[in-house]
Amino acid sequence: MRRLPVVLDPVTAGRLLGIGRTSVYRLLEAGEFPAPAFKVGRQWRIPTSGLCRLLGMDPALMHGDDPVRPSATDPQG
């Protein structure tokens, strides 16, 4: 999960949730997709952080914010 981008396309988000492409788009258009989603122009985008929360994962751990190991730029690490 750490290698995922900040926002996902609907097909990728659906795969993570075990939902097929057609069902994902049907849920998005009905406003019933189980995670936050928004449109940019005509394209849907799903924030990875919303999917993490839905799956019970801490979104802060997604992009290198590891509370166990300080980053190399951390002056205290």
Keywords for this entry:
single chain, 77 residues, alpha+beta, 3-stranded antiparallel sheet, globular
Biggest β-sheet, characterized? Answer: 3 strands, antiparallel
Compute the separation of the termini in Å: 24 Å
Helix percent reads 25-40%
Helix/strand/pairing category: alpha+beta
Treating each run of at least 4 consecutive H or I residues as one helix, how many helices? 3
Q: What's the overall geometry?
A: globular
Uncertain ranges? 66-71
Roughly how many Å is the radius of gyration? 15 Å
Strand content: 5-15%
How many strand segments? 3
Order of adjacent strands in the largest pleated sheet: 1-3-2
H/E element string? EHHEEH
Mean pLDDT: 84
Describe this protein's structure.
This protein has 77 residues and is an alpha+beta fold. It is 32% helix and 13% strand. It has helices at 10-17, 21-30, 48-54, and strands at residues 7-8, 38-40, 43-47. A 3-stranded antiparallel β-sheet has the order 1-3-2. Strand 2 (38-40) and strand 3 form a beta hairpin. Helix 1 crosses helix 2 (21-30). The longest helix has 10 residues, at 21-30. The two termini are 24 Å apart. The model is unreliable at 66-71 (pLDDT under 50).
